[in-house]
Amino acid sequence: MTAVPDQQTVTPDGKSVQPLIDGVVVRRGVTHVDERGALYELYDPRWGVHPAHLVYAYITTTRPGWAKGWGLHHHHDDRYVIWQGRVELALYDARAGSRTEGLESRLFLSEADRCLVTIPAGVWHAERNIGDAEVVIVNFPTEPFHHAAPDKERLPLDNDVLPVDLGPGWRGW
Prior knowledge:
By secondary structure, the protein is mainly β. Strands 1-9-6-11-4 form a 5-stranded antiparallel β-sheet, with no helix packed on it. The protein has a 5-stranded antiparallel β-sheet with strand order 8-7-10-5-12, with no helix packed on it. Strands 2-3 form a two-stranded antiparallel ribbon. It has no helices and 12 strands. The mean pLDDT is 92. The termini are far apart. The chain has a domain at 25-29 and 55-145: Sandwich (Jelly Rolls), CATH 2.60.120. The chain is globular, with a radius of gyration of 17 Å. Strand 2 (31-34) and strand 3 (37-40) form a beta hairpin.
């Protein structure tokens, strides 16, 4: 057996060297702490992260050891904040003609480094709880949920459509 050297994953200032899918935006959050507790700003349109107004918000959870996905929206973008837990977010750009068409990206997110992640329409996404507590994600999609005609397609995690090997540990839908 031959040892394999580690590869660079971040820059000296902590930024990932992994290429991101075009339109995926990660904005690190700031937690304000004082003797009384803490305050975390979830979303502010003045940040310029996304031009769409805040129109809808909801929370989703994933139990330890479980995964959700693959999901794709055609008409709206998701804007996730990981509020609790640790999650691996897998992304695949299926947009024809996109500058990053066919690119797969992985983000590892947690409550220890909260951020707002924009996932554009046309990008498949799946999330896996990689911790021992329930993952809580707050989503601010760019359109409200349409109960009669949801803007969502789904694929099983293991499928023949996406050329993505999620690897071990992914179970769920």
